[in-house]
Amino acid sequence: MTHRGSIRIRMMVLFCAVVGVLLTLSYVGFYLMFERVMESQLDSKLAETAAPVIADLMADPDERDIDQLDIPGQYFEVIVPNGPAGHTLQRSKNLDMALPLTSATPFQTIDTPATGSLRVGLIPYRERSDARLLVVAASTRDVDSALATLRRSALLLFPIALSFTALISGLFAARSLKPVAEVTGQAAAMIRELSLSVGESAPSGDELLQLTTTFNTLFDRLHAVLAQLNQFVSDAAHEMRTPLSILRGETELLLTRPRTTEEYEKAIRIMDSELKTLSRIVDGLFTLSMADAGQLRIAPEPLYLEEILEETCALAAPLANHKRIHVEKQLQHDVLISGDAAFLRQLFLIFLDNAIKYSRSGTRLDIRLSADPQAKDIRIRFQDQGIGIAPEHLPRIFERFFRVAQPPESHDTQSGGLGLSIAQAIVKAHHGTIECESRLGVGSVFTILLPT
């Protein structure tokens, strides 16, 4: 697709082009008309000058008055029409040679080295019975000066007129396109409010093309969000259906007949476990809904990250000991960060819980913390020796309620299938990113990158 400039610029160019053509035609027409009028006035002046001279020649043919004339800027000759070339009877003193007439037209313009540009009039008259022509010439200096002044004025006024046209057309176009820009801005704001990233940036230049592209992007993203929302609701209902069914079944079982103390205690333990699962799902959904709305509030404060990791490892130690998983820590000291301690503790606990849950008994879990002053980031690395993640599942691991196959002995102890989604929301709130590498049967490596 060829690049198209801004509609405002194109409108300005169009207005200026139209006005420029109209001004050019007007100036040319006015110039030609003015030139014709000036020449006509000069021809009339030549005819008026010739009238008394012809009267004097006809009254006294033998007198050679023309030879005595020496008027600055005016030249006279008496020639014989249809005679041999250059057959001049009389010539004014200020003419050294015959005027180079180009034709027998009554009025014409000629150029001579001695006199410059002249307007020449050929006035016929009869001397006794002979035909004569009185040649009257006058300098066109005043006419040329007036025409030159007109040309200079046109050259000065033309760019001023075009500049004024460009200014007016620019203001008009900007005012006309202002509603388009406002609608485009509102659509872009909706995209930002929905936390949607535009995959392809809107092309610069054409405002209507920007509007179309922005709306197409908005509609595409809204369609994707609605589809994701429907899937999310369906997954949430599916996840909550199981614990609710168990709770209802245990309740109905207890109400059918009197039970022993041990049976009541067992049922209550099952109900407590399922209620905790429901509570975790609801809490996770609430956290994600706040993140989706851009209202996941963190309370940043200066803290040492290795201390948060030590506390989190202590919380996960009983689960790791139960599966005989050795936790090896390599934590750089005095790694200062501005973050929310509660959210960071929840973040690390999610990765620790996943690493332990998906690891076999007797394996090792490596946790590393390092800060790179040059890159200005902090790396927290969790490497397990678990079952790994299939390549086709890696793009989906941060989706809500998405789970890979779990080992038989594992129990979802933390987030009800929302752990990595919550982790991603917490990391984004801290302006960081998460990277994942995994191989089936070897293990997974999750790396959290946080700005210093």
The chain-level structural class is alpha+beta
Question: Rounded to an integer, what's the Rg over CA atoms?
Answer: 50 Å
Which consecutive residue ranges, at least 5 long each, have pLDDT under 50? 196-200, 410-415
Strand order of the largest sheet: 2-1-5-4-3
CATH homologous superfamily placement of the largest domain? Histidine kinase-like ATPase, C-terminal domain
Q: What fold name stands as the CATH topology of the largest domain?
A: Heat Shock Protein 90
Description of the molecule:
- By secondary structure, this protein is of the alpha+beta class.
- The chain has three domains: 140 residues, Beta-Lactamase; 86 residues, Signal transduction histidine kinase, dimerisation/phosphotransfer (DHp) domain (Helix Hairpins); 151 residues, Heat Shock Protein 90.
- It contains seven helices and twelve strands.
- The strands form three sheets. Strands 2-1-5-4-3 form a five-stranded antiparallel beta sheet, with helices on one face. Strands 7-9-10-12-11 form a five-stranded mixed beta sheet, covered by helices on one side. The protein has a two-stranded antiparallel ribbon with strand order 6-8.
- Helix 2 packs parallel to helix 3.
- The radius of gyration is 50 Å and the shape is rod-shaped.
- About 2% of the residues have low confidence.
